[in-house]
Structures are given as structure tokens and as C-alpha cells.
Sequence to fold (358 residues):
Amino acid sequence: MPATATTLIIVLLLAACGIAAGLVFGLRRRLVAEARARKIAEERLASVLEYTPVAMSVVRKDGTVEHINHNFRKLFGYGPEELRTVEDWWPRAYPDPEYRAQAIAIGQQMVSASRETCSESEPKEMRVTCRDGTVKEIEFHYVDLNRIGLWTMIDNTDHHRTEEAARLANDHLLSQLSEIGRLQEALREQAMRDPLTTLFNRRYLDETLEREIARAMREGYPLTVMMLDIDHFKKLNDTYGHLAGDEMLKVTGQMFASHARLDDVICRFGGEEFAIVLPRMSLETARLRAESWRQAFAETTVTFGTFSLQATLSAGISAFPEHGKTRDELLEAADLALYRAKRNGRNRVELASTKISD
Fold:
């Protein structure tokens, strides 16, 4: 081979070696730069993770725990030396085997969902046992970043406690309101009742009779009002005492109540006088009812101590609209009929006349 050809080959080889050395050197510089950039990025990521205001952990695909941040350690109390892998986490965070199995299944579902959708999985809430034994309600978020997975944990314990406290306070308030309602109803009931006989009182009669008149007028059915009085009640009181009179009043009220219809309104009008409102009852039917009460009462014996007491009843009856179209007119008509029964010998039933002034 001529010298010139040999020289050319050597020059070409030297040039090739120079180019290769340059490429290797450039590649090495690039790799170093990339490694430095990756290190800076990882350090920045670690810094961000460390000081982010929520608990976070970075887990590799093989289950190695790469990083747990400050708020994670603060929230759960576990350090990196205790949580080197995910397998170290499960028995600590979920000491109950049955609940642990549920938590593992939920965790695996979240990881699979994030990998399939390439987005954050749907958050799940689970109870977690901390290092000091406390149990907290934690909301878990997971996002898969290919090489690593990022877990974010939010403590909802105080929120749930607040909700529970609010619920208990609300339940207590509802209970108190219900109790207040019962007390108000009891007070209203007491205000409408005669304490001796437990029948309705005059106040309730006034309210109810007006309502029943309006209903009878609207629906076109009969309405009667009955006034009844125990004959010679003052003499009974003077002879046997007021306690005996009270016993007679109670027995009388019980007799009316036990033989009344559901819609009948029975009231102690005052003293020994009773008033009964009888919706949907004709004047004649009311007269027969009063007669049966009068007869039954005359046959009733009231035992008081060693005494056996008996008395009779007088009654007066008025009807709507024959004897009045207002509360006062009906009561006055029935009262005048009662007065007539007293005047005509007592122990009898009288019907009101068509003229209230009778």
C-alpha cells in the first residue's frame, strides 16, 4: 500500500476517534445534566410534599414507601423507619383483621381505578388507628404517576365530631321542643278541664259550641244543647259536707261520660250544673237521652263513708235553630227550660220554647 493511502487511513481513524470521543463526552455531560436536573426536581418535589398542608405519602410500584411528609407523621404518629413498605402500614393502621381486609380491597380498587383512568381515583373514607391508639376518620385520595403513586390523606375526624355534636344537639333540641309541646298540650288540656270531674269546663264549652253551630249550619244537621242540674244539691252539701257533694259531682260526671257518644261534648258548667252539646241529635232523641240519664241517676247510690247518698236530676234542652242561632241564645234557652223543670217539681226534663224570653 502506498504511503499516501496509509496516511489517509490513519487520519480518518484519528478523526473518527475524535468524533466518538466528542460524542461520548457530550453524552456524558448530558447524562450528568439530566441526573442533576432530576435530582433537583426530586428535591423540589420532596420539599413540596414535605411542607404541603395535608398528609401525603409516595409509594413505588413495588410497595416501597419512598416518602411520608411532615403532616403524615404528625397526623398518624408513624415515622419512615416504621413504614418502609405498604405491608408495614396495614397491620398498624387497621389492627382488626376483618376491617383490614376491607381497607386493603378498597386501596387496591383505588390504585386500579387511577391507573385505568390516568386520573385521580374517587376518594374513599376509612377509619385509621394512629400510633397512640386513637382512631381517626380519614379521606384517602390516590393518583398514579406511573413510576410512583401519590396518596393524599385528609382528616375528617373533627368534621364528623362536629356533625355528630350538631346531630346530638339537634336531637336534644327536638326532644326539648317535643317535651315543651307535650307540656303546652297538658297545660292547654288542664285549662280546658274541670279539675274535680275531669270534664270540659265552661271556657271549652264556649269555644266548642260556636264551632259546632257553624258546622251544623254549614252541613245542615240538627244540634241540641242540654243543661242538667243536681236537685237540692245545697241541702246535700249542708247535710253531709262539701266532700260528699264533690263525690256526687264526680259520679254524675262519670255517668254522663260513660254513656256519651264520641262527638258529644260534656262540660261542668258551674257548681252542680252540667252542659252537654249533642251534634247530629234531634230534639226528641235528646229528650229520650236526658230521660234515660235522669232515671239512671235517680237509681244511683253514691257511697260516702258510712253514708249512702241519692239525688235526682233536672234537665232543660234547646235545639238549633228552633230555639236560637247563637251560642248565648241556645244556652239561655236550655237554661230557661232547666229553670222550668225546677219550678215544675224537679226530677224532670223540659224542652225549650220557641221564644227565648219564655
User: Anything to note?
Assistant: The radius of gyration is 49 Å. The mean pLDDT is 86. The chain is about 55% helix and 20% strand.
